[in-house]
């Protein structure tokens, strides 16, 4: 069921802009740079919120995109995830301890990145990152399942950091 939902969600997103699927060029993307969450705005109980979340996106050249995530959990433990993957949806490895070991990416527009994450063969989440027109705000739409199998949708806000 989880896999079917993840495939359906990804298919729906990709079908929404079929002509633009590979039109974006990473070097022109306003997604490139470092992004932080104001953790106080996360839609979860304060005790469950991470202490910090930092994402970094970079153009890796040749249609590839580098992503680095650094999360400090509520107890101070550090989680990371690093990948350099093609933007054509081809799955590839993630290195780190974040809770996903494979991802696939597409960039249907210069300000939009679609990311699907898998952890040891099980769908983990689908995330859609969209940069606002001012280039300083980014929204993450995150779809995943709770431990009891219920679908959860979250909207998370980032700001650009130096």
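Q: What amino acid sequence fits the structure above?
A:
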């Amino acid at each position: 069921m989880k896999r079917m939902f993840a495939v359906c969600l990804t298919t729906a997103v990709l079908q929404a802009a079929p002509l633009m699927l590979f039109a974006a060029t990473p070097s022109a993307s306003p997604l490139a740079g470092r992004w932080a969450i104001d953790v106080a705005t996360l839609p979860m109980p304060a005790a469950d919120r991470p202490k910090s979340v930092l994402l970094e996106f970079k153009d890796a050249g040749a249609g590839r995109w580098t992503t680095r995530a650094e999360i400090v959990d509520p107890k101070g433990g550090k989680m990371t995830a690093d990948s350099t993957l093609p933007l054509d949806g081809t799955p590839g490895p993630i290195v780190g301890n974040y809770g996903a070991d494979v991802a696939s990416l597409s960039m249907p527009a210069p300000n939009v990145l679609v990311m699907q994450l898998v952890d040891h063969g099980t769908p983990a989440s689908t995330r859609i990152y969209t940069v606002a027109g001012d280039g300083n705000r980014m929204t993450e739409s995150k779809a995943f399942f709770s431990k009891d199998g219920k679908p959860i949708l979250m909207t998370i806000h980032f700001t650009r950091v130096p």
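Q: And what stands out in the fold?
A: The chain has a mean pLDDT of 86.
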